[in-house]
């Protein structure tokens, strides 16, 4: 299981797609406005997501 903060990031990321369909600058600005430390969550996912099971 991922830490709650990482799960929150995934939810924020997907909800931002309701406003911006692509990963353009506006999308990442919105993600950053909601979750300023989102890059830390991305790093966690990049390093640890392989450990997660469905």
UniProtKB/TrEMBL annotation:
InterPro entries attached to this UniProt entry: UTP_pyrophosphatase-like, WLM_dom, YgjP-like_metallopeptidase
Domain WLM: 1-54
Keyword Magnesium found: no
Molecular function terms, GO-annotated: metallopeptidase activity
One Pfam family, short name: YgjP-like
Cited Gene3D superfamilies: Metalloproteases ('zincins'), catalytic domain
GO biological process, one term: proteolysis
Keyword entries, A-Z: Hydrolase, Metalloprotease, Protease
Protein name, per record: Zinc metalloprotease
Organism phylogeny: Bacteria, Bacillati, Bacillota, Bacilli, Bacillales
């Amino acid at each position: 299981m991922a830490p709650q903060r990482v799960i929150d990031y995934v939810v924020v990321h997907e909800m931002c797609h309701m406003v911006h369909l692509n990963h353009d600058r506006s999308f990442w600005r919105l993600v950053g406005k909601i979750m300023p430390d989102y890059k830390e969550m991305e790093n966690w996912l990049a390093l640890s997501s392989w450990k997660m099971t469905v």
